[in-house]
Amino acid sequence: KSERNVVEEELRQRVLADPYGRLFYLDIPEASYAVLPYHRPGIGSIADLDSATLEDVRAFHAVYYRPDNANLIVVGNFDPAKLDAWVDHYFGAIANPAASLPKVTAVEPPRAGAKTIYVYGPNVPLPAVVLSYAAPDAASPDAAALKVLDAVLTTGKSSRLYQLLVYRQQLATQVLSEPDLRRQAGAFIVGAVMSKGKTPDQGLAALKTELSRLREAPVTAAELASAKNQLIASVLQGREAVDGLGSELGQAIVVEGDAAKINSDVAAITAVTPADIQRVARRCLDDGAAVTLVYRAESQRPPGQPDALVQDSPAVAAVPLTPPASLPVAATLPADQRQTPPAPGPAVAVVPPHPFERTLANGLRVIVAKTSDLPIVSAQLSVRAGAATDPPPLAGLSSITAQMLPQGAGGRTAPQIAAAIESLGGSLDADAGYDSSAVHLSSLAATLPEAMPILADVARRPMLAEDELERVRRQQLDDLTVNLQQPEGIAGLIIPRVVFGEGPYGHPTGGFPQSLNRITRADVAGQYARLYRPDQAVLVLTGDITPEAGFALAERAFGDWAAPPSPPIAAPASAAAGPRQVVVVDLPGTGQASVTVAGRSIVRKDADYYAVKAANAILGVGYSARINEEIRVKRGLTYDARSEVSALRDGGLFSAAAQTRNDAAPEVADLLLQQLKGLGQTAPSSAELDARKATLTGGFGRAAATAEGLASLLSTDAVEGIPPQEVADYIPAIQAVGAEAARAAAAKLTDPAAADIVVVGDAKLFLPALRQRFGAVSVIPAGALDLDAADLGASTGAAAAGGAP
């Protein structure tokens, strides 16, 4: 029962609470396949899950969980002889059933013609359109050409659909395409989420125009080279980490039927020609057999119109589940007779790449660390100021300023910058956090000397054009429109204000509608001048690069960047903490509630930083952490319960969160608080502490093994005043935390008595019980939420509702 509930919460979280979950998980598969089982979502429906019995589960396990239907993939640092012995010991005695493995042999029939299907979902903020075309299987000789075609359409900001729909015509806030290639026949999906005020018909016309161009004329040599370079760079980045390589091997074995495919996939991509792309476009992207989906809010459904799609169509092929005559049942032993889970293995000495540092004459710090011989490099230029310096009326100013940097610089327009970087197999973007702003460059090692001058132009010589500001603002507002219809998205927007009030950390870094609409070009130019200066910046280069090469590139690109005479900008001091708040945002019709307990926490330079990280891991990092064990494993109330602590320069934010069915929100909030309170009462056992420390050190080791991951770690430390050598100290420092130190550090996570509670969901299903548990509750209708107001619109919402909250 508990696991059934967990899967139902996963369905609510991924499908029912997400405004576009129904479209991507349910509607597109149901519209794309008539006979193959891909028509049905793998997760099923609530009714499916409720009807499944324990006998069904045992039968499925007996029929399909067998050696001749399994692959064991191990990637990483291990002793092959020991692995072989463990495989023989644990798996060698498992016999295959006598019955042959059931297989679906149905063939997807050709589509009879084009059709349009109108589908609807609750709380859909912006309409979406999708075109679904029939495609071959993953092992098809045309698979590589379809992947390159997909990259031409939507990979990067120089791609055809992004340039037409998002950039030039501003019809869409997002474009998408995917060659959904499977073991049997697949589908090729193309679509767009429309911008506010734009219609599905406009989106469909633009999509079809671009697809027609692909059929009528070959792609250019520049487009082809850019698409190939980006695909190859993506493959290399995926193989940096052991889990990425393992996943790629699994995909090759299960879907393509041959593990050796990973050795030939890059060559296949390299061999694709313009004629190949035109040929597969003509063969697959046939408008005469396309299924068009138009997805709108439920409020726009014509009265009495039924659902056009059926999840459990009788035409869909299914293999009867025929269990063996005798189903072995493994009895659960009494608790005192069960085997003790094995302890974590001996600690592996992880040695992060050694960072080398040099400071240029203008004050720019340069840090270089070689991570591997894979030919990719990550470069990140960060400045030590961000959203915490936003003037109160202009929340989001630092974010908008950062996003403006690649939108024209050094004499290149935004499309020219995107085309130049992406033709080199790279990507470039910029963003802002509370304490820093950054420009990120990913590049193939061979093309880094050509990419670095573009990074320098973007950081040093942005045009900050008025028309680009309007384009960035509109994109940000469209993103907010979507977030404001998702429980977790709303929670993320309001928690900074609830916890930090009107202080420098008291607004979302990306701003909110009212503040974004106030920002002028003069505001952006002023913030750029205040933030971006070499004496407050650090350039980190990681990947396949030597210190000497990195320092030389940095000197050429940034050596003549002059520091201004004015003093650096500083963020104002944080406001004093207020009393606990219990805030509810009412989002009627949403499929799930987001529940968060949050409060102020430590600064990054706190002497107990590593002990606090360990304490937080015990509480909510990983599957076996306390809140996940209590809320998911024992009670089946969530798919994922987690906690995190963001230690910043002048304060910190702790949060523990879970998404759950609406009526369970009060219970989950209470459980989160109980576990937080209990964390500091007794020291963890050595087994619990060792397991959680292993989770932290393993995650850190995997991040530090990739160019992008190490660049992020080094950059974050640098802007917070932590020396780069501390990357080598992280694992020993975590391993040195003792049980009593972890217990004592729990008090620094946040004060449970003062922690705020934020619940976003369908309030009619939980509000009385929440008030009974926690007393006074501030209730804000989602439509009345005002991120510009100190009380988030609670007073306005109450007045609109005709009474006090």
What is the secondary structure topology, with strand pairs?
Layout: H1 2-16, H2 21-32, H3 46-51, H4 54-64, H5 80-91, E1 115-121, E2 128-135, H6 143-154, H7 160-168, E3 172-180, E4 186-194, H8 200-216, H9 221-240, H10 242-256, H11 261-270, H12 274-284, E5 291-297, E6 356-359, E7 365-370, E8 376-383, H13 397-404, H14 414-423, E9 427-432, E10 437-444, H15 448-460, H16 466-483, H17 487-500, H18 513-518, H19 521-531, E11 537-543, H20 547-558, E12 582-586, E13 593-601, H21 609-620, H22 626-633, E14 641-647, E15 652-660, H23 665-679, H24 686-704, H25 707-719, H26 730-735, H27 739-749, E16 756-761, H28 767-774, E17 778-781, H29 794-801
Helix pairs in contact: 6-9, 6-12, 7-8, 8-12, 9-10, 13-19, 15-20, 21-24, 21-27, 22-23, 23-28
Briefly summarize what is shown.
The protein has four domains: 2-20 and 29-91, Metalloenzyme, LuxS/M16 peptidase-like (Cytochrome Bc1 Complex, Chain A, domain 1), CATH 3.30.830; 115-300, Cytochrome Bc1 Complex, Chain A, domain 1 (2-Layer Sandwich); 356-558, Metalloenzyme, LuxS/M16 peptidase-like (Cytochrome Bc1 Complex, Chain A, domain 1, 2-Layer Sandwich), CATH 3.30.830.10; 582-774, Metalloenzyme, LuxS/M16 peptidase-like (Cytochrome Bc1 Complex, Chain A, domain 1, 2-Layer Sandwich), CATH 3.30.830. It starts with a helix and ends with a helix. The strands form three sheets. It has a six-stranded mixed beta sheet with strand order 6-7-11-8-10-9, with helices on both faces.
